[in-house]
Amino acid sequence: MRIGLVGKPNVGKSTTFSALTQTPVDIANYPFTTIDPNVGVAWIPLREPCACSALRAKREADGRLESISADDPRKGSICSPNTGSCVGHNRLVPVTLVDVAGLVPGAHEGRGRGNQFLSDLARCDALIQVVDVSGSTDLEGNPVGEGGSSPVEEHEFLLGELDAWIRGIIESSWQRGARRVQSEGDKALVTYLLDQLSGIGANESHVSAGIFEVSSQHPDAGVPWSWGEEELTTLAKTIRTGLFPICIAANKADRAEEGSWNQLEEMVTASGGMLIPTSAEAELALSRASAAGLIQHRPGGEGFTVTEEGESNLSEAQRNALSSIGESLAKWSGGGLVGLVGDIVFDRLDRRVAYPVQDETHWVDGDGNVLPDAILIPEGTTAKGLAYAVHSDLGDGFIRATDARSGRVIGADHEVQNGDVIRIHAKS
Ligand SMILES: Nc1nc2c(ncn2[C@@H]2O[C@H](COP(=O)(O)OP(=O)(O)OP(=O)(O)O)[C@@H](O)[C@H]2O)c(=O)[nH]1
Ligand SMILES: [Mg+2]
């Protein structure tokens, strides 16, 4: 799972990245602070208790495990995650984030940093546009105090630049592509578009949807080699919509008037996206205090508690500042940045979780680690699809699988359900 952070300069993309990944990066109040992309991992809580909760219940019922002791630092969790962690059966899974340079109007003509860097977003499953809803910066990201760009304006220009970027890739060898269509027929158009766009993650369904949209919106478009700017824009826009679902972080909400994001929210929800108000700066402060051991704060968790270390090291003023940050974050609905990433993964991209294991009785891998992997898979993934998601060898050698919760044998086409613990049998 990979999510890109995009937007005009100076909106808080890197602040968002840093708050979510706990990675220190350059952050400053001027445009183009970021040039080379930052790549890191954010930890997102699953919505349901980790499968280790069911395993624990089973072991307790069998009398093989005592009930949770009051001083258990893992609050009952008994899994051994290869990546991430699990406390109180609240399991965190990794989502890769990419923070890129800011995009300005005219980027496709080379303005600002141009748009070449957008290829850093290749193979992102979704994008988060970070928008400055406080109006403190203009469309180029220059600080203006107040009266800067409007949220809707920021979103519309970004969509236009993304479309122009994809159109540019399509157009770059259009004559060659058109000649192939002339000699080989319509199928060659799909092949040409896939050649051009598979590098940024497009597949046949994205490309076919684009071609279909051109024929339905421009019935007089004629043969592809006569398509003009409008047809190619429709093609690019449709492909972009399928390829990069976009959601909005209405950032700097701490400095904005309540509701300044309503119009944009209506617009993005109408097209299947979502918007939540955020303060990346406030979240970064909590994330840093947590990394320093001063507070205890789980990603996506409500509020925080001051640790013993915090009790002895935080001044009264610092402690007040942290609690006022906590209070202001609690004001907005939507669960903050971690909530937004979770909503994108589970609601917008319909990802489900499965736990592959090598032993269906003890739910362990070959080394005895309990539920070591929690894998995100698209809804509707089959048992064989899950095998491929684990490793291509496991997919190629797939024989059958076992649903470890029920003990039932399942076939290649069986749809994996959210939370399933699955043993895959494969030829080695
Ligand atoms: N008030 C407020 N300021 C914020 C917030 N998030 C970021 N900032 C400030 O906005 C400025 C820009 O933040 P960055 O994270 O560097 O922005 P960016 O979008 O990565 O900028 P470029 O890399 O230049 O495109 C910094 O001064 C941040 O401290 C927020 O939620 N509220
Ligand atoms: Mg930046």
Explain how this protein is built.
The chain is of the alpha/beta class. Among the domains are: 164-242, Helicase, Ruva Protein, domain 3 (Orthogonal Bundle), CATH 1.10.8; 280-331, no CATH class; 350-426, Roll (Ubiquitin-like (UB roll)), CATH 3.10.20. It has 14 helices and 14 strands. It has helices spanning 13-21, 52-61, 151-171, 174-184, 187-197, 204-217, 229-243, 262-270, 280-291, 308-313, 316-331, 336-348, 383-390, 392-396; strands at 2-6, 38-45, 86-87, 90-99, 126-132, 246-251, 275-277, 295-296, 305-306, 351-357, 375-378, 398-403, 409-410, 420-426. The strands form 3 sheets. Strands 1, 2, 3, 4, 5, 6 and 7 form a 7-stranded mixed β-sheet that branches. The protein has a 5-stranded mixed β-sheet with strand order 11-10-14-12-13. It binds guanosine-5'-triphosphate (GTP) and magnesium ion. The site of guanosine-5'-triphosphate has 24 residues, from helix 1 and helix 9.
Q: What profile does the largest beta sheet have?
A: 7 strands, mixed
Average pLDDT value?
Answer: 94
* Unreliably modeled segments: none
**Percentage of residues in helical conformation:** 25-40%
Beta-sheet strand percentage?
Answer: 15-25%
Alpha-beta classification: alpha/beta
The oligomeric state of the chains shown is single chain
Helix-strand topology string: EHEHEEEHHHHHEHEHEEHHHEEHHEEE
- The gross shape turns out to be flat
Present as ligands are: guanosine-5'-triphosphate, magnesium ion
Which value, in Å, is the CA radius of gyration?
24 Å
Q: In DSSP terms, counting alpha (H) and pi (I) runs of 4 or more, how many helices?
A: 14
* CATH domain class name of the domain at 164-242: Mainly Alpha
How many E strands? 14
Q: Between the first and last Cα atoms, what is the distance in angstroms?
A: 27 Å
CATH topology of the domain at 164-242: Helicase, Ruva Protein, domain 3
Q: Which architecture of the domain at 164-242 does the CATH hierarchy give at level 2?
A: Orthogonal Bundle
